Amino acid sequence: MVKSVFVDWVKRSNKNERLWLLAKIEFKLRYYENKLGLLWALIKPLMDIAIYYVVFQVIMKQAIPAFASFLFIGLILWNFFLESTTGTVQILNTKKYLYEYSNMNKLEIYVSTLLSNTIGLFFNFIMFLLFLNILEKDAMHTSFYTLWIIPLFINLFILSLAVSLILSNIYIIAKDITQVWQVFTSFLFFLSPVIYRLSTFKEALPTFDYINPIAGIIINARRTTMESTNPDFKLFLFDFTYAIILLVIGLLLLNKLGSKAAEKL
Amino acid sequence: MKQELAIQARSISKTFHISEDSHNTVKHRLFNLFNPPRRKKVEALKQMDFDIYKGECIGLLGRNGCGKSTLVRLLAGVYPCDTGNINIYGSTLLMNLGVGMSHQLTARENIYVSASVLGMKIKDIDNIFDKIVEFAELQDFVDTKIKYFSSGMVARLGFSIAVNAGADIMFLDEIFAVGDMKFQEKAIRVFESSWIAGKTVILVSHTMETIQKYCNRAAFMKNGSLVYFGETQKAIELYVQDNA
What we know:
The complex is a heterodimer of chains A (265) and B (244). Helices cover 75% and strands 0% of the residues of chain A. Chain A has 265 residues and is mainly α. Chain A has one domain (2-264). The longest helix of chain A has 29 residues, at 107-135. The relative contact order of chain A is 0.13. Chain B has 2 domains: 5-90 and 168-243, Rossmann fold (3-Layer(aba) Sandwich); 103-164, no CATH class. Helices cover 35% and strands 28% of the residues of chain B. Chain B has 8 helices and 9 strands. Chain B has a 6-stranded mixed β-sheet with strand order 5-6-7-3-8-9, with helices on both faces. In chain B, strands 2-1-4 form a 3-stranded antiparallel β-sheet, with helices on one face. In chain B, strand 8 (217-222) and strand 9 (225-230) form a beta hairpin. Chain B is globular and about 60 Å long. The termini of chain B are far apart. The chains are: A mainly alpha (265), B alpha/beta (244). Chain B: It comes from Niastella soli. Chain B: Belongs to the ABC transporter superfamily. Chain B: Residues 28-244 form the ABC transporter domain. Chain B: One of its GO terms (molecular function) is ATP binding.
């Protein structure tokens, strides 16, 4: 299937246009319908940062240097993963109109939705860089190492796409995967070093930075954007392989279960 | 001259397993591990083979429930087949009462999305946009979400998109039932003009006149089997006999 998508892309450039068109419409639907519009995309992480800052820095006194930026980059990556997975569990149902009348490849529906989330992440990342360089005093400023965020993001994108494919195809045969995933993501959030000091996390949960595929991405994003160092290459390669394996499982499920979506949903 | 294939179907069949209890949640599946759901087998399509060539207009005849819609969905690539395989050469459009549209989107957005799904480039959609709106008689509602449209307006828009955007292979399921009488006349006029010229069309209709007039071959189906595939006149005779 991947081969056919690739060949199609090369032969008929209309696919790229279509992906971008669907992504733009999805983005507009999500934000422009609200009174505050696009501002919500920026307000949401800022509000989260404020809450976690008060709880973990003011009340629990974790004393993590540059905690606001630490939270900022962690949360925007986490939120991308959360939106791209929780928000797409029912995608084959909500976007049925796209494949019910034509032989359009279903994989495009997923990629366009994730592209729409990428637009939101892009705005948030710009805000993060402004915050880090203008307001933050305890962290290193932006350097060439920040460019590592691109491969790290590709890793996150593949991981989110993979989990999204797995969940939404399981949804065809088990509807309550939505609730199961909601509980699981709360668990995963607290098992990711989004709000804790890395040393505390590693001490309490050794090897968890490897087991949890999103943990390594957050750890490496902080290293490259806030500490001006290279990513932990071992962790980076491990997470990339992790994401690719999950993607293969997701694509197999899409072939096996997803092909029956039109008749089952 | 050798004709180019549009659709090649080999040993295709389709059976639906309809479960009487709803076992579609994790909880249900766990609690009923030793009590599997009662399933009913419905053999919607029995094994069949055929070829459809580019530029042909094929009529599909048969009484209600004989498997026409299932066959059309299989050929359009919407449903997978249980056995055999189908090779589809080109983009497909399945149209019964319009094409697939999102009620959350405006008419403008739906036009762009649907036409793009049918394989058109944005630049080309820009060129036919006004034509689509005009044909659907929706000039004053271009930026209105279609959830506020009447069912007739939605159907007109869907028809108009299909007419103007088209696809290489089109499955038209009772399309002349769209809109009021005036719109139906317009639809027939379009059909008679150059719309389907050069395209492969599979036409499902209970109106013999339509089949006779436009189709160069026709298929007659009964109880999920392809009874006859060939001359239009013969297929119509079989259908009429079946209805007698």
